[in-house]
Amino acid sequence: FLMERKTHVKINRKEVMLAKLRKSCSCTPRKLKNFLMDFFPVLRWLPKYRCKEYIWGDVMSGLVIGIILVPQAIAYSLLAGLKPIYSLYTSFFANIIYFLMGTSRHVSVGIFSLISLMVGQVVDRELLLAGFDLNDDAPPALGDGSLQNDSMSNPTVFNLTIAGINAECGKECYAIGIATALTFVAGVYQVLMGIFRLGFVSMYLSESVLDGFATGASLTILTAQVKYLIGIKIPRSQGHGMLVITWINIFRNISQANLCDVITSAICIVVLVTAKELGDRYKHKLKFPFPTELVVIVVATLVSHYGKLNELYASSVSGAIPTGFIPPKVPEFNLMLRVAVDALPLAIVSFVFTVSLSEMFAKKYAYTIRANQEMFAVGFCNIIPSFFHSFATSAALAKTLVKTSTGCQTQISGVISAMVVLLVLLFLAPLFYSLQKCVLACIIIVSLRGALRKFRDVPARYHVNKTDTLVWVVTMSASALVSTEIGLLVGIVFSMLCIIVRTQRPRTALLGQIQDTSFYEDDLEYENLSTVPKVKIFRFEAPLYYANRNYFLKSLYRLTNLDPNLEAARRKKFEKKEKQHLKKGNHRTANGLGIGETTLQLVPKQIDFQVLVLDCSSISFLDTTGVNTLKEILKDYKNLNISVLLACCNPSVIDSLKRGGYFGKDFGCMQEMLFYSIHNAVLFAKDQK
Asked: The STAS domain covers which part of the protein (predicted)?
């Protein structure tokens, strides 16, 4: 039977587009109100805020995250190659802006290790190109910690004309200029992606690519912190192969290790890891996680200050952290041009991590987010703070988990966290003057536990899917051994190639009938399947298009043990020889048989079927090459008196075959060539026989 297709009304796309354009360009008070409430989701949920029910959880989670943010912000400034004050600015502004524009109730947006690393790599590269010495660190200046001129924070001051800046600008001044320009451009990219609804880009970052990228970047972060752990001074490597070069320099200078830093690092790592493990084990008994990092920083700062570790043992310390806010400044346009390419992967990674975390927690707590609005929120979390000497931000999994575990209900907790950071910015920052850099390195390294533990999951990942494991290994290796940006690009390209290879060489099978049923399955995978006499059933488990056409034909010929082109050529050759013998009057054929016996030789013994059924259930689409391939098969097998029947075609494939002329001009033979199940095709073949 042939099912009757519905007649679809053709849509005038031009009129639809014009109608949408007119609707979007119209402006009414109601529409303006909806636009503002969509752009600032806080206007929707804040009036409905259940104060008695939510306030305690929000305040507690906000305080805990704020306490965690302070040491992390100071520590991650090492990754970004910037002063700690800029990390505190970043944490403050990101929380305020996401409170206004974000749609997720739980994610914690702020400073993130991978983003800080990507910013730091660009900053270091540009500093080198500008002629600055990356190891020219300023000796910690004494004083009350108030804001000082940027040019005085570095012992070497350059009168530069770099990228359009005609001013006396020190290393710190130029570094934050690069970071803010990079952040501004990344934010602009994210806003443009939101305007043009390019959120689908995140679909090309699979879980294996993201995990591999995070693990590879974690190895890079770990490597960059080792010199602080043991207190040695080595040149900061840049470019491809930074990880290997850094480790070579570490081993060359290991004899210069600072014993004070080594002992401090060992103690801090033991304390942090032990506290984290105990916290993970007994987290169900704790109302909120213990702020181990803050305790370690406070104790280490006191020991360093009163023990005079910097003066007596030359232990490197954070130095003076100014209080208050630096006047806002517009990022330099000429610097934006220098970092425009670097900002693209930064924008994509920042957006993908934020949206994936938002969707994960929205699903867990049964509410919805708007991915496009998340892109706007993250974009403006980069654009606006870039005017206030901040750098790029993203959502962070570890802090988000802490927020949810401490009772977070809404983004009010983000405002509370921002207030804690503000308190440090205004009053407490100078107290961290004597904090050793090795303590900050320990905090960073211990925070990488989750990413580094991915190595333990490799056997389980390999057991589940070997291809995904290979994608993870390639992405991780490229991110660690080449660079983070190249690693991300390699991971995306390699994962796409894996998909292409899968469609180029998919599974193929000959099917047998499950006894006493109308169902058919792979003859090599299942026992006790019966073959249908004189019928071959072939399954191809992929779309049929130009890239896998040859594999389709080779698999078909191999499994059916018949190449119709070779068989046709053999028959023509045989007939030609017979005609030559007949012309000579010899009634014996070329193989010594009589003329009457020759007909038997024209049908070779290996052709044990008269009907070929193609199971098209796994063929999702056909391109022009695919349609032509099926037409060639139909013609070639017809020359051998073998019928070709199609089964289980979807409407898209049927339409492609119709347009390609597979069923003839008037589709008259369609009922005898197309069937809605394999069993119908087999029954038809038996009736025809």
From this structure: 525-685
Same domain, 447 and 564: no
- 526 plus 615 within the same structural domain: yes
> Domain count of the chain?
2
Task: Note whether residue 473 is domain-resident.
Answer: no
- Looking at residue 135, its pLDDT comes to 67
513: helix, strand or coil: strand
Question: Can you tell me the distance from the alpha carbon of 623 to that of 609, in angstroms, rounded to the nearest whole number?
Answer: 29
283 and 182 share one domain: yes
Distances (CA, A) of 286 to 279, 310, 487, 521: 8, 37, 39, 54
Residues 512 and 416 in one domain: no
How is residue 330 annotated by DSSP?
Answer: P
* Residue 278 within a domain: yes
CATH number at residue 619: 3.30.750.24
224 in the same domain as 123: yes
With vertex at residue 49, the alpha carbon angle to CA 48 and CA 53, rounded to the nearest 5 degrees, is 130
202 to 206, 213, 393, 529: CA distances (angstroms):
8, 14, 17, 44
Whole-angstrom distance, CA of residue 395 vs CA of residue 60: 19
Which bin fits 373, alpha (ψ -120 to 50), beta or left (φ > 0)?
A: alpha
CA distances (Å), 453 to each of 111, 190, 214, in order? 22, 31, 11
Neighbours of 63 (CB within 10 A): 18
Query: Which class for 6: exposed (0-12), middle (13-18), buried (19 or more C-beta within 10 A)?
Result: exposed
**Structural domain of 650:** 508-570+605-688
Apex CA 50: angle with CA 29 and CA 380, to 5°?
Answer: 55
Contacts of 457 (CB under 8 A, 6+ apart): none
Q: Are residues 218 and 299 located together in one domain of the fold?
A: yes
In a domain, 498, yes or no: no
Query: Any alpha helices (H) in 365-457, and if so which ranges?
Result: 371-386, 397-405, 412-423, 437-447, 449-452
Characterise 394 by phi-psi region: left (phi > 0), alpha (psi -120 to 50), beta (else): beta
Q: How far is CA 654 from CA 38, 658, 675, in A?
A: 43, 6, 11
Residue 590 is assigned to a structural domain of this protein: no
Residues 518 and 445 in one domain: no
Q: Could you give the 3-state DSSP secondary structure of residue 63?
A: helix
* 398 and 545 assigned to the same domain: no
| Mean pLDDT, contiguous 10-residue spans, the chain (689 residues) | 70 79 78 89 93 89 86 86 92 95 93 90 90 60 40 44 51 92 96 85 83 89 90 79 89 92 94 88 74 86 92 86 90 93 92 88 89 92 95 88 83 94 90 89 86 88 94 94 88 92 92 92 91 94 94 95 89 82 62 49 64 95 95 93 93 92 80 91 86
Query: Of 388, 423, 452, which residue constitutes the final position of a domain?
Result: 452
